[in-house]
Design goal:
The protein is mainly β. The longest helix is centred in the last third of the chain and has 9 residues. 34% of the residues are buried.
């Protein structure tokens, strides 16, 4: 769900545990919740969730605990751990407000600290255009920032710069925050774009839905509900799943497998 509570279960449990913070999450359909796991020496392993509207929430992983709100953190629409930092894209911060092209990173080893330290900072991805950052996905030794138009590499530099960016491709236009999936251990990505389905490795693009397949997918897509598109790679069978909202459906109702 895009709003309300967060629940947890595990194999052997007879039901679901509500681990929500007391504050109801108010993400919109265009800002679905993101979850990621981060491991640091200072706080151990944590589950972090963002939704582009509310401050990030963090869970320790213990069943009895609830999510804790990071009230002083940057608000982001997507999140990923990288090089012992937590990164968020499409952000809102106290100083500058909403900057849809910006990527923020937390202090080194501290996902709760975003200002007041030299190891926290931000970078704007405006080299090609001013479209918003949709997702941050690892690819080999870099982190790819997908935008509504274009893809950038977030390069780790350590102190004092910490991170820089390079434009990888100006025209890869992912259709939703979850319209991309790392495959082969992050060696390549599957991306569903406004031109169709592709595989790419940061350099070479391989169209895999050429002509009839792409036309079928794009013509059946409910464009107004494209935010609900999601993809997953199933490693065991080396298959990619693509879920699309078609017709008048506002959530995925058709599953394609590649």
């Amino acid at each position: 769900a895009t709003t309300g509570n967060v629940y947890y279960t595990r194999p052997g449990d007879t039901g679901w545990s509500n681990i929500s913070n007391a504050t109801v999450r108010s993400g919109t359909t265009d800002n679905p919740p993101f979850f990621c796991s981060i491991m640091t020496a200072s706080v151990g392993q944590r589950i972090v969730s963002v939704n582009g509207v509310n401050p990030p929430i963090v869970w320790s992983g213990a069943t009895a605990d609830i999510f804790v709100t990071l009230t002083t953190a940057v608000i982001g629409g997507c999140v990923a751990p990288w090089k012992n930092h937590l990164l968020q894209g499409d952000t809102i911060d106290v100083a500058d407000g909403a900057i849809l092209t910006r990527v923020h990173w937390s202090a080194l080893g501290d996902p709760a600290t975003w200002t007041g330290t030299a190891s926290a900072g931000s970078i704007d991805l405006t080299e090609a255009n001013a479209s918003r950052v949709l997702n941050l996905v690892p690819m080999r030794s870099t982190l790819v920032a997908y935008k509504e138009e274009g893809a950038h590499a977030i390069n780790y530099r350590a102190a004092p710069l910490w991170f820089t960016q390079t434009l990888l491709h100006p025209h890869i236009a992912a259709l939703s925050r979850r319209a991309m999936a790392p495959i082969d251990g992050g060696e390549r990505h599957f991306v569903f774009t406004k031109e169709g389905a592709i595989l790419w490795d940061g350099q070479s693009i391989l169209p895999i839905g050429r002509d009839r397949v792409d036309r079928t997918l794009l013509r059946s897509l409910n464009w107004d509900a494209r935010h609900s598109i999601w993809t997953r790679w199933w490693a065991r069978d080396n298959e990619v799943f693509l879920a699309l909202p078609t017709g008048t459906s506002t959530s995925p109702n058709r599953l394609w497998v590649y």
